[in-house]
Design goal:
The protein is 44% helix and 17% strand. With 421 residues, the protein is an alpha/beta fold. Helix 1 crosses helix 14, helix 6 crosses helix 7 and helix 13 packs across helix 14. The chain is globular.
């Protein structure tokens, strides 16, 4: 279990409590919203390639259903525990409310290092986990999606398993699927695109030229890698990138396209062994503390803490990951004048296009990529405007402003619906 000091669920509850107090929510509403509504823990056997059987533990948590069916990814990681999944589910509730899409929040995970399993073992694990959580998922109940160490192939296996149980294809039961089996164009890039849009909108309000910005991105997966690529296309200079093998810094700017090609060719090694003129290899901690204009933590939770917050040398932090900043670090950043674009806003592009995919699946009518990206930009820019303007009016942080908007919407939905029976 995650220690109390960095327990992500306690952090999520503290963030909620701060917003609830400012909103003066009734205590009974607070009691409902600060705890998950449903939790499922499963332990299931998977037969390995060598003929032995291994038992895995998985979770699915549904935080709140007041605004609609729940939505949230599934991650495969050895550090997954129930409190992490609870926190992620709660953050999904606020994220969906902030961009005003009709979902509550959920999250799932399996305690596993996928690098230890073969492709066939991952398929068997995914299908068995899908069968175990089928009790509570469905296109009008709870719609999973990819997260850390899962991808469109994972979602295809998940959808196929549940479809086999029903005897017909259930397209809208998951999002983030391959386009060939009902996925949406633009979904794979959506979270990274949303992050890049937040950087652009921040720069516009600071009257800064994008070509003058030096950017450091922690994480080189589906969020960090795509965000870095899109930011270079906007004209920014990405000077630092990090993955599980450490950090890579080049003050004149990195060739992100070449690095993505290298990582794709070495899926087990990632960026390990990548070379370029002037490239410096640094630790993950040193990467975060590299001087830059924009820092994008796009890996895991609890990366920016009271231990390193004083050494962060960025003008703005745009949270591509969920929960990368602890409340103690937030306080330090506020004192130092470092703006933080919070996760429930900055990385909401993924769930927004997941919503588009769900709608397309239900209607069996699919949109072009330009249409998807245009709709995503409209929603993300509108949400940024609302958060930024409220923060300026109330003289509060962007995180608190985002929570005030999101928690108010969820609380109102629960109050209006009332209590059954």
């Amino acid at each position: 279990m995650t220690s109390d000091r960095v327990n992500p669920f306690h952090i999520a509850q503290q963030q909620f409590d701060d917003a609830a107090a400012m909103l003066d929510l009734p205590q009974d509403v607070r009691d409902v919203l600060r705890e998950p509504q449903r939790e499922l823990t499963v332990r299931f056997p998977v037969k390995l390639d060598n003929g032995t059987t291994r038992v895995f533990t998985g979770y699915r948590v549904q935080h709140n259903l007041g605004r609609g069916p729940t939505k949230g990814g599934i991650r495969y990681h050895p550090s997954v525990d129930i409190d992490e999944v609870r926190a992620l589910a709660m953050w999904m509730t606020w994220k969906c409310a902030l961009v005003n899409i009709p979902y509550g929040g959920a999250k799932g995970g399996v305690v596993v290092d996928p690098a230890d399993l073969s492709f066939e073992e991952l398929e068997r694990l995914t299908r068995r986990f899908a069968a175990e959580v089928s009790l509570i998922v469905g296109p009008e109940r709870d719609i999973p999606a990819p997260d850390v160490n899962t991808n469109p192939q994972t979602m295809a296996w998940f959808m196929d398993t549940l479809s086999m149980h029903q005897g017909h294809t259930i397209n809208a039961v998951v999002t983030g699927k391959p386009v060939e089996v009902g996925g949406s164009l633009g979904r794979n890039e959506a979270t990274g695109r949303g992050v890049s849009l937040m950087v652009r909108e921040w720069a516009l309000r600071r009257d800064l030229d994008l070509s003058d910005l030096a950017i450091v991105v922690q994480g080189f997966g589906n969020v960090g890698g795509i965000a870095a690529l899109l930011l270079t296309e906007l004209g920014c200079r990405v000077i630092g990138i990090g993955d599980a093998t450490g950090g890579y810094v080049r003050r004149s700017g990195l060739d992100i396209a070449a690095m993505r090609t290298y990582a794709a060719q070495h899926p087990r090694r990632l960026l390990e062994g990548y070379t370029a003129a002037g490239l410096e290899h640094v630790t993950s901690a040193e990467l975060l503390e590299t001087a830059c204009d924009v820092l994008v933590p796009a890996a895991l939770e609890n990366q920016l803490t009271e231990q390193n917050a004083a050494r962060i040398q960025a003008r703005v932090i745009v949270e591509g990951a969920n929960g990368p900043t602890t409340p103690a670090a937030d306080e330090i950043f506020n004192r130092r004048g470092i703006m933080v674009v919070p996760d429930i806003l900055a990385n909401a592009g993924g769930v927004t296009v997941s919503y588009f995919e769900w709608v397309q699946g239900l209607q069996s009518f699919f949109w072009g990529e330009q249409d998807v990206n245009h709709r995503l930009e409209q929603i993300m820019v509108s949400a940024f405007d609302q958060v930024y303007n409220l923060a300026q009016q109330r003289r509060i942080s962007l995180r608190l402003a985002a929570y005030l908007l999101a928690v108010r919407r969820v609380a109102d939905a629960n109050i209006i619906r009332g209590i059954y029976p």
